[in-house]
Specification:
- The chain is 87% helix and 0% strand.
- It is mostly helical.
- The chain is elongated, with a radius of gyration of 25 Å.
- 29% of the residues are buried.
- The longest helix has 47 residues.
- It is built from eight helices and no strands.
- Helix 2 packs across helix 3 and helix 2 packs across helix 5.
- Pfam families: VIT1.
- Its main location: membrane.
């Protein structure tokens, strides 16, 4: 029992971290996608309403596109996990010895002797056979699937939240501050998402921040010059 609780807690923490990482990446996509359209349109026209509508339309399109993509991705993952569970359910009925051997090998790789590993495997398969083989062979918790709707709404919110920064900066800042203000807002925003992604992924914070800022600046300048062509 004492081994199950930490594992369950770790799975819950991993899921939360994955959700946070997805949210950070969604925000980053929202920022860069919206500022790209804003800079292209703003370089081509000075009509403030046109710029705002273009940015808002892109923000909504980006948010709903990412939400639908997350929904499809998580739904596919959920279906795959359910199919794996059903496969193992059948194998326990038709090929129990191989399942027993798989569980035994798992515990032997952890340093348990063959005799003890066999005793553990028999005991676990007698009490919770399906839960045991799913956990051992696929590192999955039986009946614990990600909710595709949660993933979709998380992406929808994060992409929308990220895209709001450049949209508001370009729309509501005074004319003299519009361009430099938007560049600063985007640079700070992508620096923050780079920092958060590095912290959550336990990566190099400095590298992630610099990389994100450089990508953000390149994105802005490319779209600005594309807009000036028209």
């Amino acid at each position: 029992m004492s081994k199950t609780k930490p594992k369950k807690a770790q799975q819950t923490m991993d899921e939360k971290l994955n959700t946070l990482r997805a949210g950070v990446l969604g925000s980053n996509d929202g920022i860069l996608t919206v500022v790209g359209v804003l800079f292209s349109v703003a370089a081509a026209t000075s009509n403030q309403f046109t710029i705002f509508i273009a940015g808002l339309s892109d923000l909504l399109a980006c948010a709903f596109s990412m939400a639908s993509g997350e929904y499809a991705s998580v739904s596919t993952q959920k279906d795959t996990e359910k199919a794996v569970v059903e496969k193992e359910r059948q194998l326990l009925k038709t090929n129990f010895e191989d399942e027993l051997a798989a569980v035994k090998r798992h515990y032997m790789t952890l340093g348990v002797t063959e005799t003890t590993a066999m005793a553990i495997a028999k005991d676990l398969l007698a009490k919770k056979p399906l839960e045991t083989v799913v956990s051992v062979k696929y590192d999955m918790k039986l009946g614990h699937y990600m909710n595709p709707w949660d993933a979709a709404f998380s992406s929808l919110f994060s992409a929308s939240a990220g895209g709001i920064f450049p949209l508001f900066a370009m729309t509501f800042l005074p004319t003299a501050m519009k361009w430099p203000g938007t560049i600063i807002a985007v640079s700070l925003s992508v620096a923050l998402t780079g920092y958060l992604s590095a912290v959550l992924g336990k990566g190099n914070v400095k590298t992630a921040v610099i990389r994100n800022v450089i990508v953000g600046i390149i994105t802005m300048f490319i779209h600005y010059y594309v807009g000036t062509l028209f």
